[in-house]
Each structure stands twice: as C-alpha cells, then as structure tokens.
Amino acid sequence: MHRGETGRYEVTSVDGETVRAFVPSRLPPEPALDLSVLQGPLERALLALGRVDSLATLLPETHLFLYRYVRKEAVLSSQIEGTQSSLSDLLLFELDEAPGVPVDDVVEVSNYVLALEHGLRRLRGGFPLCNRLIREMHAELMTRGRGSDKAPGEFRRSQNWIGGRRPGTARFVPPPVHALSDCMSDLERFFHEQESGLPVLLRAGLAHVQFETIHPFLDGNGRIGRLLITLMLCHERVLQEPLLYLSLYFKRYRDDYYMLLNEVRKSGDWEAWLTFFLDGVAETSQEAVSTAQRLLSLFQEDRARIQQRGRAAGSALRVHQALQERPIISLQKLVDRTNLSFPAVSAGMKILEELGVTQELTGRKRNRLFGYGRYLAILSEGTEPL
Question: What is the pLDDT of residues 309-364, one digit of tens each?
Fold first, then answer.
C-alpha cells in the first residue's frame, strides 16, 4: 500500500550546507497495515520461528549452539558495516595466545558479542526494553576500537547523514538533533504498544525501520538496529533463547534491503518491507534448524568414530566435547577445560588428528592451535567477507 511519505522534511544546516532532514511519523503506520497481504508471510514466519524456538528444548547443549550462533551473527552484522573479519579471526582473537589477527576489524566484531550479551542479560534480569538499554548496548558496542571516539552510549548531539562524502550529497539525512529525543521516545513507547493488536513480529519489523531512519547514534546504528529485532522477540517471549538473527539474510539481499528501507520512507509501502522481513524470518529460521541438525549429526558421527578406538578413546572423547565448546583451541586451554593432564590431552588430540576430526593450524612446534575443521566449515557458511 502506498501511503505517501512516512514523515516530514525539515530544512537544516550542516557544515555550512543546507539539507533536508527526514523526521519520521509515529508508529504504527496510518492508514493501518493491510494484514490480508501479510497473513501468508506472517503464518510461514511464525511456523518457522516456532521450529527455531523448539531448538532450545531439543538441543542437548543449547548454550553451545548459542555460543556459535552469536559469534556468527556478530561477524555477519559487522561485515554489513564494512569489516573484513572472519569467524576464525574472531575465535582466534578470543584466545590469548593468538597474535596476528587483524585487530581493528575483529575488535568491532568482539564488541558486538559483548553488546548482545549485555542486552540479553539485562532483559533476563527484569530490565525493560527501553532507550536506556539501547544506549547501554551501544556503549558496549563502541567501547574500544574504531568508533570509540564517537560518543559511545550517547544519542548524537550533531547531525549525521548516510551515503555521500558530505551532507549536500548524502543519500539520506536522519532527523535533526532537536527532534531526536521525541523520535526515540515515540519509538520506546511503540516497543510496548498493544492497542493496534499487531503481532510482535510485525512490530519488530516496523521498529527496525524506524530505528534505522532515526539513526540516533553517530556510529553503530546498523548493528544496534539489527540487534533490536532479536531483543524484541526475546523480550516478548516469542523466543526462549536468541536463536534468530537476520544479518545473513540482509547480507545476502543487501540491495533489496536498502531499497525497501528507502521505499518505506518515500511511499509508505510498509507491506512490501514487512513481506521481505517476514520472508527473511522464515528463511533464516529454516537455516538455523538445518544448521543445528547438521552439527548434531556431525558431533554424533565423530563421537562414534572416536569410540571405535576402544580404551584409548576416553581422553579423545573429552577433548572432542571441549572442541564443541571452542572449535579453535590450544592444548593448554584443553587441559584447563577437561581437567586432563597435558599428556592425556596430547594423546586425545593425536587420535582426533588421525581420524581427520581436527587439524593443527599454526605449523609451530610450540603453542600450537587446533581446529575442528568440519564444524568450522558448517559454522562459517555465508560469512565470507563482502
């Protein structure tokens, strides 16, 4: 449905240039959403999301899957913003004895993990989904590395713009500073809005666009805006665990994503954006379930192969279990995690190498690192740098 522009323009001056800054109207949209258009995509998305949520009860080690999935999401969401860090870079960065990782990019990815974990921890502690929580997460996201000088944890006090080297050539100019507080207060109220009767999935899709349009921070808006989707679903208990992330979908269909965001602002076609969003929820949910099933099959297959080594399999099985938690790891870290002796860990790792389960990554004789190859390959699918 074409409603016309979903906001108003204000003429403002930025760095001596006159620009038209866009101030979005309050949510929910008016006229109301055409739910008949969205019913099919919504039902498919909810069905797929239910399967994802069931993983929390079906997986024997839910926290292990979350560890892997959160880090994959961190890599993907940061890649959309231009980082070139890989999943292996992040896992190596998290090991103290892994120098040589591209620090600037991987610090940004690591910060994303911290921001997500902080937000979920606060929600589980009973803290509401609100602007204060968003600012706290932004502070975690920008605490170190690139962007740490751009007011971490604070809404901007100067005009920003999207695209173009200067304001006058920008692709889009978000609301001026004086309108920012009202815009974010309206969005905060919409997080908890019930009068429209809109399902939380639709409200999450609407809120994401609104946040990206407001662009309340000097940097990090895209990453916080994508985290907001998962936070809303966890806050409303649609998901028991944060097992849905759309960054791979947004990366895969990047041009469509940006085109539809812009089209909402220009024509008010919320239905086109929400159809795309709901299709992404369904596609991403199906991939999450498939990935979990493939990983479980891999672990079971490798465990069966290890058990065929008879009495020698004991230490190898414990090393294998630890590798499910940390798929790149050193022998000393394995000693700490398994409570086995160094010789026992070494013997267990030798069996895994002989079976082709693990590979030594450094080529060194000391301080060696080992990777769980097939596990890393499955987990890394789609995380190739743009």
Answer: 998 899 999 999 999 888 889 999 999 999 999 999 999 999 999 999 999 988 88
User: For residue 19, what are the CA distances in angstroms to 4, 24, 176, 283?
Assistant: 21, 16, 10, 39
Which helix (H) or strand (E) segment is 33 a member of? none
Give the Cα separation of 50 and 53 in Å (integer).
Answer: 5
The domain locations on the chain are: 7-290, 308-379
Give the whole-angstrom CA distance, residue 91 versus residue 7: 43
Query: Residue 175's beta-bridge partner residues?
Result: none
Q: What is the crossing angle of helices 313-325 and 62-80, to 10°? A: 40
Residue whose tokens read 């699918």: 381
Quick check: helix, strand or coil at residue 297? helix
Question: What long-range pairs does 127-135 form, CB within 8 A, spacing at least 24?
Answer: 128/192, 129/191, 129/192, 129/231, 129/232, 129/235, 130/188, 130/191, 131/155, 131/184, 131/185, 131/187, 131/188, 133/231, 134/216, 134/224, 134/228
Q: What is the CATH code for 7-290?
A: 1.10.3290.10
Whether the Cβ atoms of residue 97 and residue 330 lie closer than 8 Å to each other? yes
CB–CB of 310/70 below 8 Å?
Answer: no
Shared fold status for 7-290 and 308-379: no
Closest CA to 214 of 183, 245, 244, 170: 183
Whether this model's pTM surpasses 0.85: yes
**317 neighbors 306 (Cβ within 8 angstroms):** yes
Q: How far apart are CA 321 and CA 323, in angstroms?
A: 5
The CATH classification of domain 308-379, taken from the options 3.40.630.30, 3.30.1360.120, 1.10.10.10, 3.30.930.10: 1.10.10.10
